[in-house]
Amino acid sequence: LALLAFAGCVPEVEEMEGIVLNLVVAKPDTRATKPGEEALNENKLPDRVDVFFYNETTGEITKECLNQILRNGSQVRILTSVNDIEDIFGTTSSGAHCGVFIVTNFTGTYEGTANARTIDEIKSSLIQDPVWEPQEGTRWNYIQSAFVMTGEQQLTLGNAQGSQPINQTVALERVAAKVTFAVTVADNATGESGQWTPDKKNMDVYM
Fold it and tell me: How far is residue 83 from each of residues 61, 117, 193, measured CA to CA in Å?
């Protein structure tokens, strides 16, 4: 297929695939870590993601492709020219490496100057307050619509002039830690003013 030259990152072209990144939600590998729950949107992938390619030695972002469309629910395809590949990898030689950092569900603002950021600036931008959404008919049972997830991977360049110079899988993990705890409440208690019965429906738990 003939290679088309584009100045930026183009998310949708049927004739070419370009850089293909297959996103998966990482599974926990320890008993102490629980997998995400679908009902709580903990594994939810959005329609679009932000992709940052970076130099593994300097940490400088070599190309940022924001708001990329997810195809088939979990695949990113970024159309690239030979010039784009050289910008990303610093070369067009097969076997070259670079880093990629993917961010999902992030609604904030990235630190640094666009097209002149570092990977550390991107990572430090992700600390933000959650957006809690109360559920109808409940008092404090808030559920977030989505969680920020990130994935980082070393990419290996194939044929820079081919229709698919890269096809790799990137595992995503939630940025926030998940803490689960159980509270035991006595059925009744005796105080100085008499017998107390807990109103469990209107009790709050704070951390």
Answer: 16, 20, 80
Q: What is the C-alpha to C-alpha distance for residues 13 and 79, in angstroms, rounded to an integer?
A: 7
Q: Hey, what are 107's tokens?
A: 């609604």
3-state secondary structure (DSSP) of residue 202 = helix
CA-CA distance, 40 to 48, in Å (whole number)?
Answer: 20
pLDDT tens digits for 187-205?
888 877 778 888 777 777 7
Contacts of 125 (CB under 8 A, 6+ apart): 106, 108, 109, 110, 111
Where residue 93 falls among pLDDT bands split at 50, 70, 90? very high
Euclidean distance between CA atoms 48 and 51, whole angstroms: 10
Q: Cα separation of 20 and 157, whole Å? A: 12
Q: What angle do CA 16, 155, 53 make, to 5 degrees?
A: 80
Chain centroid to Cα 47, Å, comes to: 12
For residue 69, give the nearest of 11, 127, 15 by alpha carbon: 11
pTM of the model: 0.74
Number of DSSP helices (H) and strands (E) in the chain, helices first: 2, 9
Assess contact for 63 and 88: CB atoms under 8 A: yes
Cα 188 to Cα 10, 50, 100, 127, 202, distances in angstroms: 64, 52, 56, 42, 15
Looking at residue 22, what DSSP letter applies? E
Q: What is the C-alpha separation between 49 and 77, in angstroms, rounded? A: 11
10 Å CB burial of residue 204 (0-12, 13-18, 19+) is: exposed
